[in-house]
Design goal:
Chain A is an alpha/beta fold. Chain A is built from 11 helices and 14 strands. In chain A, 35% of the residues lie in helices and 25% in strands. Chain C is built from 11 helices and no strands. The chains are: A alpha/beta, B mainly alpha, C mainly alpha.
């Protein structure tokens, strides 16, 4: 039986269909990465799977229980660390985990023991009796994660667990997620970071504008895209001419910013001299040249026509996730 | 019959609510100051109303103390609703809703914490009232007063929680406070029913809170009688039933 | 250096901003209009029999007597609200933006007070309208109403200066908000809600000397008895005195903030 099974899941807010018919399956013991830009529908989907939001269409089961008809059984089986780290700044870390244990129906003495164990696991023993308001962002996320684990859930939902964290804190969270998964916990992880999905997930589902646009292992998704591409940075004024020349060599891809040209090259590094010679013959000066192998962002571009992560400083602001 | 886990959850939520009192004591000051200032101020302003023919006592502090006690309870309950709205805005309520604890248990924790907190402003008002000459209501009168303060705070917490769950924003705070203020003051707050002006007299007659005010007041202005007590109990039970159902419905519909 | 006309434009623009802020957020309007109206209705209905007390001044009705108190309450809350808003601007860094602009520093504070004055006019009009709708007469007619409105607006500015000075000195909206209970202390210790002769000691003696009593009586006189009498003049003197006091406090607080950055 899959840990999570979703069929045609939908959620409408007035006239807006934030989630439009999502289908996905997550096996027991898997780490599933749910990848997409801001406003794609990731958090809305997670809120439906964690029974915080009712679907307006479709159905879903988590740990074998229907999210609508057996909501309480779902809540008893899942651990949740949401995008808003729902922490009370006046409580201490220890108090929070003990409260979570009580909410999960764990007897007091057992709850205290588990709180002590979890605080040690996430390296918060020294700060356990300090108020959460004094914790750093990384500490708050670790505490949130620990609280989500107090009842040893079958399925753990992490909604953008490392957004806003420094690289060291991010790595710490990743290690903890891997460790949990090694113990058999199924993890459903939403993220807007390619590297996070690439590093952690067994399977990745890419969502855009409320729909799944691609699903598979990171390797299989990248292999679908196939060819590497050359990324050129050029002087302004020479872009149009360069694009015309590169079009003769390979397929042009949407540029990341106003000064770059991206062209697919079938033969990888072997095609680089050809590109350089063609541009040189036309008198076009190349600022920089990189050979880029496919990433999940390329998969995203292939499926949606735009990038998941934007380099351009003048990129339009994405709508905030519902 | 509530399960052991449910009672433990309610106790834990009440315990969390006490944090604000113990860890940010200044936060409790407005809730204590407001009814006390109003009590003292209104005594200074309207104290000579007792000279009117038909006034049921010659001690205005004894007459007024009931309303100030209930005002403190109303204020405490409304503040609980504002805290809930803040918890909704900050995502804390999601933590509770994603747990297997039943919705009525979550609401009970919130409402019970208001009832217990209401004893603080009530005690402050009573201390000041006795200091300026309010009559001693007897032990039975005092118990009735405290019990009705706790119940009124619960009513106010249910009302304010319903609003918090409906609007999901602290911007609804004035509505929470104004609603309770109107409910408690549109009663025999300042004068006996017979001396009130037409329209307010009509409202006070049908306002269930009037029964509560009179029930709390009885010990301070005279003796305790069951006939003056049971209408207040029935009124509180009725308001609690209706507003409790409304707030529970709001708690159950958070996922809609 | 900016010209007078330019500064007046700035004061006007900032004044309009502060009025818009208040009207766009109902939770700011509620304490200024809704609560005083509610209290007016309840106190009039509940304690209205007071007009029968021996020694109560000759009035058409208790409502007519109470209108000035409601206006006083409202203007003090509007003044406090202006102080809170200025403190929020300081917390947000918005005043830094203004101070960095080529405008007079005092225009920043005057702009906020201009908004408070506008609110004072609105609240005065509101309560006069409420009074008329519910049968109260304005004994001084249109001139009396104008005098009441002018006194309300100028008292709002004078008292608003106190709120502004606290905001400038502390930079914390929570501290200005903490003044809220004090407003009611001041009101209860004045003749806002009852004639001085019928108040209970020690409130009665305090009300006799409380400058707010003079302001309230000045607003009350045109409503209750017309423009004959000295109460309006006494009120104007009290407003000038409060304004002078609050101006000194505000100027010192502003200079302190500009000098120390906090």
């Amino acid at each position: 039986m899959p840990a999570i099974s979703v069929e045609g899941l939908e959620r409408a807010f007035d006239d807006v269909l934030a989630v439009q018919g999502v289908d996905l399956t997550v096996g027991e013991g898997e780490i599933y990465g749910f990848l997409g830009p801001n406003g794609a529908g990731k958090t809305t989907t997670v809120r439906m799977l964690t029974t915080l939001l009712l679907p307006t269409g479709g159905r879903a089961t988590v740990a074998g229980h229907d999210v609508v008809k057996e909501a309480r059984a779902v809540r008893a089986s899942i651990g949740v660390a949401l995008q808003e780290a729902a922490l009370d700044p006046l409580m201490t870390g220890r108090e929070l985990i003990r409260l979570q244990a009580t909410l999960q129906g764990i007897p007091t003495a057992e709850g205290r023991r588990r709180a002590d164990d979890l605080l040690e696991r996430v390296d918060l023993v020294a700060a356990a009796d300090r108020r959460i308001g004094a914790y750093s962002g990384g500490m708050q996320r670790r505490l949130d994660l620990a609280a989500a684990l107090v009842h040893e859930p079958r399925v753990l939902f992490l909604d953008e667990p490392t957004t806003g964290l420094d690289p060291v804190s991010r790595k710490t969270i990743w290690e903890e997620v891997r460790a949990l998964n090694a113990e058999g916990t199924t993890v459903f992880l939403t993220t807007q970071y390619l590297e996070e999905a690439d590093q952690l997930a067994d399977n990745v589902g890419i969502i855009d504008s409320g729909r799944i646009v691609a699903e598979g292992t990171p390797e299989s998704l990248k292999a679908e895209i196939g060819n590497p591409h050359v990324r050129l940075t050029l002087a302004e004024g020479s872009i149009a001419q360069a694009e015309e020349i590169c079009r003769q060599i390979g397929k042009l891809l949407p540029p990341k910013d106003a000064r770059s040209v991206l062209v697919e090259v079938e033969n990888g590094a072997a095609d680089i001299p050809r590109v350089v010679r063609a541009l040189d013959d036309a008198g076009i000066e190349v600022g920089s040249l990189d050979l880029v192998t496919p990433t999940l962002d390329d998969v995203f571009v292939e499926k949606t026509g735009h990038h998941l992560e934007r380099d351009d400083a003048n990129a339009e602001e994405e709508p905030v996730e519902a | 019959m509530p399960r052991r886990e449910d009672l433990a959850t309610i106790a834990a939520l009440v315990g969390r609510a006490k944090n604000e009192l113990l860890r940010v004591p200044a936060a409790a000051i407005p809730g204590v100051l407001a009814p006390t200032i109003f009590f003292l101020g209104l005594n200074g302003v309207f104290g000579n109303l007792t000279q009117l023919n038909g006034f049921t006592t010659d001690s205005y502090p004894s007459f007024l103390v009931a309303v100030s006690l209930l005002q403190g309870a109303g204020f405490t309950g409304a503040a609980t609703g504002v805290n809930l709205a803040r918890d909704i805005e900050g995502g804390w309520l999601d933590r509770l809703l994603a747990s297997p604890a039943p919705r009525w248990v979550l609401l009970s924790g919130i409402v019970l914490s208001a009832s217990l907190r209401a004893f603080i402003p009530a005690t402050a008002v009573l201390a000041v009232a006795f200091a300026i000459g309010a009559h001693w209501p007897g032990l039975d009168g005092l118990l009735i007063a405290y019990a009705m303060v706790a119940a009124t705070a619960a009513v106010a917490a249910c009302y304010a929680s319903a609003l918090a769950l409906r609007y999901r924003s602290q911007a609804a705070a004035p509505l929470m406070q104004a609603g309770m203020l109107a409910l408690i003051l549109c009663t025999t707050a300042y004068a006996p029913l017979a001396l009130m002006q037409g329209w307010l007299q009509d409202i006070a007659r049908v306002n269930p809170m009037t029964q509560v005010v009179d029930a709390v007041r009885q010990g301070f202005v005279g003796g305790i009688a069951w006939s003056d007590t049971w209408p207040g109990i029935v009124a509180l039970a009725g308001m609690l039933a209706i507003l409790g159902a409304l707030s529970l419905r709001g708690m159950r519909r958070t996922a809609v | 250096m900016s010209s007078l006309a330019a500064n007046l434009r700035v004061v006007r623009a900032l004044g309009m901003r502060s009025v818009r802020q208040t009207f766009r957020r109902p939770q700011l309007m509620a304490p200024i209009i809704v609560f005083p109206t509610l209290l007016l209705a309840i106190q009039t209905g509940g304690a209205g029999g007071a007009v029968n007390l021996p020694g109560f001044p000759p009035v058409q009705s208790f409502l007519q007597f109470m209108l000035a108190g409601a206006m006083m309450q409202s203007l003090m809350l509007a003044a406090n609200s202006g102080g809170i808003a200025l403190a929020v601007d300081i917390e947000m860094g918005f005043t830094d933006r203004l101070f960095a602009a080529p405008i007079s520093r005092y225009a920043v504070v005057l702009g906020r007070l201009a908004g408070t004055a506008a609110l004072g006019v609105v609240t005065a009009l509101w309560f006069l309208a409420v009074g008329l709708v519910f049968g109260a007469e304005i004994a001084g007619g249109v001139p009396g109403a104008l005098v009441a409105i002018a006194l309300t607006a100028s008292a709002a500015v004078a008292i608003g200066g106190i709120g502004a000075s606290i905001a400038l000195r502390t930079g914390k909206s929570s501290i200005v908000q903490g003044m809220f209970p004090l407003i009611f202390v001041v009101l209860f210790l004045s003749t806002a809600f009852f004639p001085e002769a019928l108040m209970v000691e020690p409130a009665r003696t305090i009300a006799e000397y409380n400058p707010m009593s003079f302001v309230v009586e000045g607003i009350r006189q045109p409503i209750v008895s017309g423009l004959d009498g000295t109460d309006v003049l006494d009120a104007a003197i009290a407003v000038v005195g409060i304004a002078a006091f609050s101006m000194v406090l505000s100027v010192r607080a502003l200079r302190h903030r500009l000098r120390t950055g906090g």
